[in-house]
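User: quick one, fold this
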Amino acid sequence: MNLALSSSSLTLAVKSFIFFALGIASYELINHYISPTAPFTSQCQLTSTPCQVNEASLSLEKDLVNPMVSNTLSVNWDAIPKDIDRLQLSLEGHEMMMGTYRLILTRNKNQQFSGDLLLPVCMEDAMTWFGTVAPIDADVPIDPLHISVRMTK
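Assistant:
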C-alpha cells in the first residue's frame, strides 16, 4: 500500500511539474510574439514641422493625425536616384495589433514624394504607429527611414 501511495504521489508531482513547465513555456512563447524583441526607436515623429532623418525631410499636412481623416505625408529625399518614382510607407500599431498599414508615396513634379495617410479607426483614445519609409524597386540597397505617427481621436 505504501508503494501505491508513493507511486501516486510521484505521478501527481510529475504531472504538476509538467503542467507548470508548459504554462511557463506558453507564456514565454506568447510574450515573444506579442512584444517586440527590441524596442523600436523612431528617428522622426511625424508632424507638420519637418523632421530630418539621414538625408531626408518628412512632414504631414496637419499636426494632428485622426483615424479616417486624410493627412498628406510629404517626403523630400534628394539622395534617392531619379529613376525611383515610388516610396512605401509601412506602419504597425504599437499599443494595439492592427496589422500593417501600407501607403505608396509617388514622386511629383517638384521631385517630392507624397501620399494621403488615412489610418484606420482604433478603440483606444490615442495610438502610436511605428514604421519605415523605403524606396520601391531600388537597384542598390537604401536604408529605410524610421518614423512614428501619433494618432488621436
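User: anything notable?
Assistant: The beta strands are 44-45, 51-53, 56-60, 71-77, 86-93, 100-107, 113-117, 126-135, 145-152.
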